[in-house]
Predict the structure.
Amino acid sequence: MSDKVKIFEQQLSEKCKFTIIVGGVYSNNPKSVMDEVISNYVGDSPHNQWIDIKLNNPWTRVITGDIRDLPFENFKTFLKRRERKEKLNKINEISK
């Protein structure tokens, strides 16, 4: 089973990482395969699982560790910062 499972991990903070696991693609029951894979991967660590909204992709799971450790910011502040960055990028493009 494990040779047919692929994993991508990205550390987001000291306690939190983002992981995508794909497996069980050619299995008769990919959900069961992935349930076992995820159980082995996370053990008893706190985590969140994110699944396809239409539930038509049972062979892919996205796992995040302790997201409370991430440096969240106010959404309005984020939008303002992004808008300023886009304006600066346009200015830089024009001045080239």
Q: What stands out?
A: Helices lie at 30-42, 75-94.
